[in-house]
Structure formats: structure tokens, C-alpha cells
Amino acid sequence: YTLDSDGDGIRDWIEYALGLDPALPSPAKPVNAIENVGGTNYLTLRAFRGPMLPPDMPVTIKTSGDLLNWTAGTILTNTTGELKVRDTVPANNSPGRFIRIEAARQTPNP
Questions:
Q1: Nearest-angstrom CA–CA distance, 110 and 2
Q2: Distances (CA, A) of 18 to 7, 24, 87
Q3: How many whole angstroms separate alpha carbon 9 and alpha carbon 44?
Q4: pLDDT tens figures, 32-68
Q5: pTM more than 0.90
Q6: How far apart are the C-alpha atoms of 65 and 58, rounded to whole Å?
Q7: Is 11 helix (H, G, I), strand (E, B) or coil?
Q8: Calculated CA dihedral for residues 24, 27, 33, 37, nearest 10 degrees
Q9: Which of 14, 20, 35, 52 could serve as a FRET partner for 103 with CA atoms 20 to 30 Å apart?
């Protein structure tokens, strides 16, 4: 799960899950930012998605304050071209927040 065949900094597993070609450098890397919503700052992550989204590998964006316990973020955009998720905990209230992309292949039932 750590291989990055094209050397673009995104692991093949995640590129595949995002519908990108792991053998070609991605046009844009996922970007995290702090966004202000009604006076409160939240950590967000925006990932470009390619045209080859695999039906057997859903993607989730999870957040954590301790790198041990992860919860799903709030989905802001979920289209064939973009996935954008916001943390559920305000950045103002926490000394450190983390955000990551997760993908797990689902096997079909026989």
C-alpha cells in the first residue's frame, strides 16, 4: 500500500481509489487548508478525482486529534471530479488536527 509508481507523492492505492492512473503523475495533489465557516476555522481536504472511479473501492476522508481515533469528516463536495471534506471539530478548539484519505476494496458477495 506504500508504492508510488509515478513518483508524484500519492500512493498507487489512493490514486486508484480516486479514479486516477497510478502510472501517470496526477494533475493535482490533495490539498488541505483551514477554511473559515461563520467565524470558526475548520481543517478541510480537497482531492481531485479522475474519470475511472472504481465501484469496488469507496473513499472516505477521516479526521483525528490524536492519530489513533479517526472519524469521518463532513462531506462538502462529492462529485466525479472532486471530493472535499471538512473536519467536524473546529480547529480553533484543538491544538492539532489531522486529516487523511482512506480507501478499502470491497469484495463482491458470491
A1: 30
A2: 16, 13, 20
A3: 19
A4: 999 999 999 999 999 998 888 888 888 889 999 999 9
A5: no
A6: 23
A7: coil
A8: -130
A9: 35
